[in-house]
Amino acid sequence: TRYEDVFGPMIDSFIEITWQLLTSISEEPKYDILVSKSLAFLTAVSRNPRHFAIFNSADAMNRVTDQIILPNVTLREADIELFEDDPIEYIRRDLEGSDDDTRRKACTDFLKELKENNRDLVTNIFLNHMKVFFEKYQSNPSEFWKFKDLYIYLFTNLAINGSLSNNGVSSTNSLLDVIDFFKNQILPDLTSPSIPHVILRIDAIKFIYVFRNQLSKVQLIELMPVLAGFLQSDEYILYTYAAVTIERILTIRESLTSSKFIFTKDDVAGSAEILLRNLFGLIMKQGSSPEKLAENEFLMKASFRVLQTAENTIVSIYPEMMNQLISVVNIVAKNPSNPRFSHYIFESIGAILNYANIDILPALIELMMPSFLHILSEDIQEFIPYIFQILAFCIEKGSTVPESIKQLAQPLLAPSVWELKGNVPAVTRLLRAFIKTDASIFPDMIPVLGVFQRLIASKAYEVHGFELLEDIMLTVNLNILRPVSYTHLTLPTN
Hints:
Shape: elongated
Largest sheet: none
Radius of gyration: 29 Å
Helix content: 55-70%
Number of strands: 0
Strand content: under 5%
C-alpha cells in the first residue's frame, strides 16, 4: 500500500506464499489473526488494478472462492462456542465491527474488493456456489443448517454496494433481488415455529437490520410484531438482535437528507406499551449485579427509541416507566461500568420528561429526586452531569422550582462543584434555570457573580460565563444588583 513501486516485483512470490499458507493452515482460533492479516494482504493486492488481473478470470476466481473464501467464512465450532458462551461478545463482533481480526471479516473485505473490481464475474461465480449450498441445506436442514447460514451470509455481502453504515444500506447490487430473497428465504425463518438452529433465526433478523431501507414501510410494520415476539424469548442473542433491529427500524428517515422519521407516534401507539414492558423485563432479568445489568446497552437504547417515537401516546404508563428507570439507576450507580448503557438510561428519563404533561411533571420529579440526591451526595461523577441537565430541564419546562430541587441552589455555588470540567455545562444550565425561574432563590448575588468570574477566566468556559451574566442582567431585579460591591470581585481587565 505504501511502497508498491519497490515491492511490485516480489508480489507474485508473496501471493504464492500467502496462498499456500491460507490453504494449509488449520481452522483453530489461535491462527485467526495470521489468517486475517494474510487475507488483508490479498485485499491490498486486489485493490491495485494492475495486480487484480491475477484474480480476474473465471478459473482464478473459482479457485479463490473454493480454496480461500468459502473455508474461512463457514461457521466453525469455535464460532458456535462463542455464540453460546459469550453472547455479548458475539453481538459486538457482529454488529459493532470489533471483529477486525476474525476470518469472516477479513474474507468479507476481500470479497468486497473483488466485487468492486468485477461485479458481474464475482456475483455469478458465487451464485453458482450458493445454489449448491441451498440444495444441500434442503436435502437435510437439521444436519446441514450451516449451509443456509453461509447462503444468507454470502448473499448479504454480495448485495451490499459500498459499505454498511449506521443508517443501513443505501444501494444494492443490481444483479441480486433483495426483496425476492427476503420473501423466499428470510421470512420463513422468521415466522416458522421451529428452525434447525437459532443462528438461522438471527441471520434472518440481521438481514432486516442490514436491508431495512430496501423494505417498504408496510413490510416493516408487518415485521414489528414478529420482532416484538422475540423479546419474550429466553435466547440472549435472539432478543438482543430483535431489540437492535426494532431500534434501527424506528430511526429510518424519509430520505438521506430528511430529518423526519418514517415511523410516527401513531404507528407505534398500539405496540409501544408492550414493547417497553418486554424490554424492561429483559433488562431487569439480568439480576441485581450492576455490571451484568449494564452489560447490554442495546436493550436500553431500544427502550429509549420506543419512548422517543411513542411521544405522548403512552403518558398513562410514564410513572411506571420512571419507577423502572430509577430502579435501574439505583443498581447501576453502585458501579457505573458501561457508559453507553448509562447514557441511554438518562436519555430515556429525558424522553419521558419531555413528553409528559405539565400536570404529572411534579409527580415524576418526586419519583426521581431521592435517587438523584443520593447520587449527588455520594459524588458519583459518571451520573452527575446527567442529573444537573435533567433537573434544569424540569425547571425550564415547569416554569417553577420544586422545593426538592430548590435545596440544591446554594450547594451549587460551592467551588468543588465547578472543578470538574465535565460538570460545567450542566451546572451552568441548572444555575441559569434557577435565576430565570426564581431569582429570589439567590438574595445575595455576589457568589453567583463569583461563578461568572471563574467561568470567564477560562477560554473553554467563557461562553457559559457570558450566558450566565446575560440571564442575570435580563432577569434579576436591578435593585438587587445595585447594592453589590464590585470591590469583592477581581475581574480581568480585558
